[in-house]
């Protein structure tokens, strides 16, 4: 596990709301634009952006696989196998979506506490320098 980043207390107080917004989906754009000079907000904006892009990637992959498997379910004799596979994939996607939601809650709690802890599993990815 990586080290916890320490931030200036004035930076934390001034930008806490923006750090929280960074975890609320497309609202990540607000701290991305407004808080360019805040290390604290930039840290949480990066975490929120990685989380948001992970959710988008999951949705796109689910959509594409759903279309392909949806077409395959119409095949005679073996279509039911693709239906079962689609059901299993939907269960996995649902579990991963719940996991992303939990990571969002963890990020919001960290932002509220003024902490710079990386999110589990995806926190080590850096998009913003």
Textual characterization of the structure:
With 129 residues, the protein is mainly α. It is 68% helix and 0% strand. It contains four helices and no strands. Helix 3 (39-72) packs antiparallel against helix 4.
Low-confidence sequence ranges: none
What is the number of helical segments per DSSP (H or I, 4+ residues)? 4
Give the CA-CA distance, first to last residue.
20 Å
Number of strands: 0
Radius of gyration: 19 Å
- The dominant shape is elongated
Query: What composes the largest sheet?
Result: none
Structural class: mainly alpha
- The SSE order reads HHHH
The share of residues in helices is 55-70%
Q: What proportion strand?
A: under 5%
**Global mean pLDDT:** 92
Write the layout of secondary structure elements.
Blueprint: H1 9-21, H2 29-34, H3 39-72, H4 79-113
In short:
This protein is an all-alpha fold. It contains four helices and no strands.
Attribute tags:
single chain, mainly alpha, 129 residues, 0% strand, elongated
């Amino acid at each position: 596990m990586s080290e916890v980043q320490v931030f200036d207390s004035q930076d934390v107080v001034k930008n806490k709301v923006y750090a929280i917004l960074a975890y609320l989906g497309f609202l990540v754009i607000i701290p991305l634009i407004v808080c360019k000079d805040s290390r604290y907000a930039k840290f949480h904006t990066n975490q929120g952006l990685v989380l948001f892009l992970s959710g988008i990637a999951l949705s796109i992959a689910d959509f594409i696989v759903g279309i392909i498997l949806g077409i395959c379910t119409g095949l005679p004799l073996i279509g039911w196998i693709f239906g079962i596979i689609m059901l299993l994939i939907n269960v996995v996607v649902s579990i991963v979506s719940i996991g992303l939601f939990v990571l969002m809650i963890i990020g919001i709690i960290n932002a509220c506490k003024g902490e710079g802890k990386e999110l589990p599993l995806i926190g080590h990815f850096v998009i913003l320098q």
